[in-house]
Amino acid sequence: MNILNIEKINAFEEAIKSYYQEFRDIGLIIDEQPDRLHEFTDLASVQLLSRMMIPSEYNDHPFIINNTKFYGLTCIERVIGTEWLSYGDAGVVVGCPGPSLSGIIIQDFADEQQKEQYYSKLLSKPCWTFFALTEPNKGSDAMHIETNMKKVNACDGQRLLNGEKYFIGNGTRAEIGVVFARTTTGPIGIEMCLIEKDSDGFSAEALDTLGLRAPKLSRLTFQNVRINEEQIIGRHLSPLKRGMHGAITVFNKMRPTVAAMALGVSQATYDYMITNKKNLSLDQQQKLEHFQNELITTRNLIRQAALEVDINPRNGYVGSIAKVRATSLVKQITQYALDLFGEGAFFEHPYLNKWFRDAFAFENMEGTSNILKLNIFQSYMNGKISYV
Ligand SMILES: Cc1cc2nc3c(=O)[nH]c(=O)nc-3n(C[C@H](O)[C@H](O)[C@H](O)COP(=O)(O)OP(=O)(O)OC[C@H]3O[C@@H](n4cnc5c(N)ncnc54)[C@H](O)[C@@H]3O)c2cc1C
């Protein structure tokens, strides 16, 4: 992994900051009518984000600053880019076309043919993707998913995919994505497959959500969808190095990014209060100073987490701590902002209304705080980390 030096990281941050306004301008529109996102795929910011995480072999249009090409393949690029675009609007960030979560799977586990299939779709037009792990009754408990992929007969590699996935980002508009399904019992009996939206037996239906509405969380249904051997991702790897190992890799690499979304919304809320609320009492000034310090320490923690993951993707603990902290901050600050502006704020300040609703979505992405705290505690107790 190419680790960027501090000058390049700073240049990247300065350049990407200027893109937030386009997301801010369309955030409320997309929140109300998520389908209108298709009207904005020509925006420079949307184009930029949709090409992030496409590697150089397939990507002729990276983000170039001072002759350095940025592909969004390092976690540090992703947390900085995501923070500032989420400062504009986090819903649009999650709702944008591009690789997102499934991109990590393709980059790290797919074979050349699967990469060609996936990236060529992404480059031909604005193309959404999905990552389908969660099920109606299996969220945090992902090890026990029930969607299954059984062999049609013993002598060929054909399988039938059956089951249901729930809360899947961009599921109704995605062209291609990754599905996790069980081929046999036990933790290594889970495989990943690459599937296109026009496969027979595959359907997607949008769910109605209160926060982060742009990605149109969806229910995906698979009824006897035929899966060939070539669609199984990571079949060239040992069972321990694919399947659920893929999901864990995605979570480790993307958890700091979710923390960065929460931070971007927190910073936007803080700046909104500073700009729009005059004549603050002493108590209010002190509370805002407290939030300002929290923003700085949370940002430092997220960036430390990103650098750790870039050195070794198994170093996910700091990312877990950063995400717990960032999701706590965003819930506190968005609630405080509504209280600060008083009765009627929910209706008179549409951005505060939206940011408050969005704040609760981050909690459930890439591990809830309860589960992350359990993991952090277990890692501390068995000596994998020396501090919390
Ligand atoms: C905006 C958004 C986007 C998403 N995108 C995707 C996506 O693209 N693909 C995908 O596969 N999924 C996606 N999800 C789903 C997400 O991964 C799940 O919501 C998450 O895994 C939690 O699962 P759950 O909602 O079933 O809650 P549950 O697992 O049922 O948890 C409910 C509550 O119980 C607590 N809890 C659960 N187990 C324990 C335990 N053992 N000890 C203590 N507390 C516990 C949790 O902390 C939580 O507070 C998305 C969710 C959101 C909100």
From TrEMBL:
It comes from the Bacteria. Its cofactor is FAD. Keywords: FAD, Flavoprotein, Oxidoreductase. CDD domains: ACAD (cd00567). Residues 242-378 form the Acyl-CoA dehydrogenase/oxidase C-terminal domain. Residues 131-225 form the Acyl-CoA oxidase/dehydrogenase middle domain. One of its GO terms (molecular function) is acyl-CoA dehydrogenase activity. This is Acyl-CoA dehydrogenase.
